[in-house]
Write a structure and sequence with these properties.
With 265 residues, the protein is α/β, with parallel strands linked by helices. Helices cover 28% and strands 22% of the residues. The longest helix has 12 residues.
Length: 265
């Protein structure tokens, strides 16, 4: 199979739980680049906490961030594409403000959140930019929302379902995310494939989360991580190892690198 591009999820795929890229994963990616394969990151993260890893690898390809709501140019850091989501804000805050949920609102101008936590502290450390606002989001003056993230602490499909007419809903084990209708990593990948003149059949995508489902089903070869849910594994063509055991590198070495004893896909 002629693979011309690979789209790699970050959390639970490229990165270990410690938020580091292993030497083995890096070397596998370098091997692909040396073969002329275009390597892209496709993540739910915002730009500021994607770019440092993109730079660490040495990539010059566009970055897909916020589950496909934004695509950023590697060189300038400017947004090539943004898809904003519009909710009934009053209703959204009525459902979330009085509950102990944390709410994070990713906008074109930065992050607004109800309260800080370890994850947001990490984002500030890596991205070097603190949230623009922390507090009661009903009082915040934000616009151009790219993604809402609601952390309920448990699966909450009964709450997230209330937004399905307004937004694309991604349900997680600890809450849910909302982006604009028809926005996904796959919708952003399609824009990039058009730009680079690649066919979906020439593309590999690898990930572990519910926000990876559509891209895994839609590219030529979808790969689920060993740490993915059964639903994600069922959507993929291959299942590789756990992210703590370099499952990304394992797949690349076995199936994509010509210097290894590889197996034809």
């Amino acid at each position: 199979m002629n693979v011309r591009a690979i789209f790699i999820d970050m959390d639970g795929t490229l990165l270990k739980a410690s938020n580091y890229i292993s030497r083995r994963n890096l070397e596998a990616i370098y091997g692909l680049i040396n073969q002329g394969v275009k390597v892209f990151l496709a993540t739910g993260r915002h730009y500021e906490v994607t770019a440092p890893y993109h730079k660490e690898i040495g990539l010059s390809t566009p970055m897909i961030c916020l589950n496909g709501a934004a695509i950023y140019d590697a060189e300038t850091g400017s947004a090539k594409q943004m898809k904003t989501v519009r909710l009934n804000e009053e209703r959204f805050h009525h459902l979330t403000a009085e509950n102990p949920f944390n709410v994070m609102i990713h906008t074109a101008n930065g992050l607004y959140c109800k309260k800080t936590n370890e994850e947001i502290d990490y984002w500030t450390k890596v991205g070097q930019i603190p949230p623009r606002y922390i507090g009661d989001l009903r009082q915040a003056n934000y616009q151009d929302v790219l993604k809402y993230s609601v952390r309920t602490g448990a699966p909450s499909p009964e709450i997230s379902a209330l937004f399905k007419k307004e937004a694309e809903v991604i349900d997680w084990n600890d809450g849910f995310e909302l982006v604009a209708p028809n926005v996904s990593k796959w919708s952003a990948i399609k824009s990039i494939l058009t730009e680079f003149r690649f066919s979906p059949n020439e593309v590999v995508a690898i990930g572990d989360g519910p926000n990876d489902l559509e891209m895994l089903r839609s590219v030529g070869t979808g790969v689920a991580m060993g740490n993915a849910s059964e639903e994600v594994k069922a959507a993929a063509d291959f299942v590789t190892g756990h992210h703590e055991n370099d499952g990304l590198a394992e797949f690349i070495e076995r199936y994509l690198l010509k210097s290894y004893e590889s197996y034809a896909i």
